[in-house]
Amino acid sequence: MRFVIIGGDAAGMSAASRAKRMQPDTEVIVLEKTEDVSYSACGMPYNIADADREVEDLVVRKAEVFRQKQGIDLFTGYRAEAIDPVNRTVTGTIVDNGEPFRFVYDRLLIATGGRPIIPDLPGFDLPGVLALKSLEDGRRIKSFIRNQSVKKAVIAGMGYIGLEMAEALRERNIAVDMVKPRPDLLPWMHRDLAAIVEKELIDNQVGLHAGCTITGIEKNADGLNVVCEDRSLSADMVLAAIGIRPNSELAADAGIETGINDAISVNRHLQTSDEAIYAAGDCADAVHVVTGEKTWIPLALRANRAGWAVADNVCGRPTALEGVAGTSVFKVFNLEVARTGLSLAEARRADFEPVEVVIKSRSRAHAHPGAQTIRVNLVGDTRSGRLLGAQMVGPEGVAHRINAVAVALHNRMTAAGFSQTDLAYAPPFSPVWDPLLTAANQLLKKV
Amino acid sequence: MRFVIIGGDAAGMSAASRAKRMQPDTEVIVLEKTEDVSYSACGMPYNIADADREVEDLVVRKAEVFRQKQGIDLFTGYRAEAIDPVNRTVTGTIVDNGEPFRFVYDRLLIATGGRPIIPDLPGFDLPGVLALKSLEDGRRIKSFIRNQSVKKAVIAGMGYIGLEMAEALRERNIAVDMVKPRPDLLPWMHRDLAAIVEKELIDNQVGLHAGCTITGIEKNADGLNVVCEDRSLSADMVLAAIGIRPNSELAADAGIETGINDAISVNRHLQTSDEAIYAAGDCADAVHVVTGEKTWIPLALRANRAGWAVADNVCGRPTALEGVAGTSVFKVFNLEVARTGLSLAEARRADFEPVEVVIKSRSRAHAHPGAQTIRVNLVGDTRSGRLLGAQMVGPEGVAHRINAVAVALHNRMTAAGFSQTDLAYAPPFSPVWDPLLTAANQLLKKV
């Protein structure tokens, strides 16, 4: 059997490795348009923060290892350009020499990932206007900072990649201004929690310009000028971190169904509307375990997990994925910020009758030195009593705590049920009542 | 209604406060034999570690607050000595003046806690041989260290209180030897994980004497001599940290049923065999959510939670507790050690057909600076596929991670279900596959 995979990062290489391991006689062909495979894209801000580290550190497994040790036919520099579902072929161009290629498949995996959204505005094509998604982007940013002695940067967008990059650039003593058109920082977040993140950014000398619409970028004698409706920000470098979108055009052009956020629609077995064609990773959608509806949350764990599940299905071990809870975490300077499930507004949109609480608690026990404030937002449904989501912010004890709620959401637990869980307590790590339990106890009064 | 409570710590004062808050016209009487109420016993090792901190820092709420602000009739120095279930009375002695007292109750809560096990061996009554449970014990240890300029201590027992005290004493530059009769450190732990804890103790110059039975303690010119069958250890201070047992005699003498570990048997509503009498905290048992059987795990969260539930039940809001998962965590020098659910041996004893895995993973992502090794042990049942328990050891990222498994156990999740959970990932906090997921994926191959 010939299993062809388009895209050689998280989902693609996970599927390739697992398929070859499960069923060594499967011919596994991976077509990757760049020269980079299997790297930790999420690690890039932290790599950029350190001038002395090589970008290549982020490579998890080298192409040679896949080829020689694992027996995967990995073609880098092969750009897939068309899928023919009737004749089960993928065609494209070899980047280096412009030669065409054509592969026949029995099973196909589309793992084309996503790409940064670049606004269609004047100046976003200027040198020094960069985005961060691929390893090549990382190299480009790092060498630009070095070669141009970047002192000032503007980040367009205030999502978690923007925030991680703000920290990375401040680490390197680069002045940072962040710009976004909408007025709210992290609009999905409870305002009390978002205010803590905002303060952390201001305390770290990040200039925040929320509610500013960029109209274009201009080149001037010194560098660049980011022009907004009501102000203008000078910069040596501009980072476009507005968001990403799924690379689903190849699939759509082949008549494969796309849906939410233009991501490729897949069933729980990761099959697209063509049953011989799978999709996984940032290009594909998933089911949200709280709503039961389709969602598009491009994150690394689900890409890896979906890659594995595709391999299982292709190799004859039927595997269905349950879905995502929408769990995510990021660090911004000295804060840990985490969420899972639905915010109040999302819960309303999903036709729940939600209520929420916000509590302040401590990261360590009463009278334990070093305790920090943790803020927890919990959302519950008044109709069913179900727990629907959580958000947390604090300098410690946030990142892993969120997982308890994620597991509760997978089990469709009620707030009452969650409030009875036996969570760990020792003075260096928690109050007797874990902050999550304190929040659940408060929520219980409302649901 | 008159609600009498024997014992003024976690369970007792939680019940008292909540009952008074829920139903202010309830007469709430608390009888506490010491002068201390509502303190963080778990915080004592950390308080002892710091010569400059007052033991009184550990008091969460002062007696006056309960009396004046909350309207609780709190009698300190009142030692309850007998319960008469027929006439619904509690009698005892006022410690200060030896006068008798007698209270009639409508509902009674026994929250008498536990006490350290002191071996019936020569010398355990010598000055300088101390135990740690009450706040008074804490004061005694702290003043003994100061007044006697303690330079060397022997700790009898290697449970988590012993281990926390070893760290506390080393903090104060006191040489520490630990002694226990059985050969294994933390016998409930997977040996690979226990070996890490052992190394941490040795690296911090704690002398470990496992497999040494103490035959007695002798006084010598310099201080004390802990005599074992095959060796003798000199010390300025000896700490008995062998374990605790429930203070259930008062209940047993009144004909109230006791069970596992001689703890007072309670139903899910915290009622004893006499329906007007409740028991909560370290003196009472609980249901284990994994086995469905009775268990006795004296820990602070369940004491507080049970106190609340008793108040709810007494005040006419029927509340049943689901039970405990056996979650616990402690810090030992630079290690976090956590568990929840059953070990392999416990699962066998509970008639499961268990298998286990042990994996090594990292606390942060591939190539992220500062990543540390985390070891995870997961136990699953081959018959049902259920996840049964987890243990974890590592320098970071352990304490809160265990909660995800605890929630899974409350939901009787399978290993397969758990392996699909959407746990948080960001490079500073986790590999893409959280260590728990890596362990679950391995366990799946066995269950």
From TrEMBL, chains A, B:
One of its GO terms (molecular function) is oxidoreductase activity. The keyword Flavoprotein applies. Keywords: FAD, Flavoprotein, Oxidoreductase, Redox-active center. Residues 330-432 form the Pyridine nucleotide-disulphide oxidoreductase dimerisation domain. Gene3D superfamilies: FAD/NAD(P)-binding domain (3.50.50.60). Residues 2-305 form the FAD/NAD(P)-binding domain. Its cofactor is FAD. InterPro entries: FAD-bd_OxRdtase, FAD/NAD-bd_sf, FAD/NAD-binding_dom, FAD/NAD-linked_Rdtase_dimer_sf, Pyr_nucl-diS_OxRdtase_dimer. It holds the Pfam family Pyr_redox_2. The keyword Cytoplasm does not apply. It comes from the Bacteria. Belongs to the class-III pyridine nucleotide-disulfide oxidoreductase family. This is NADH oxidase.
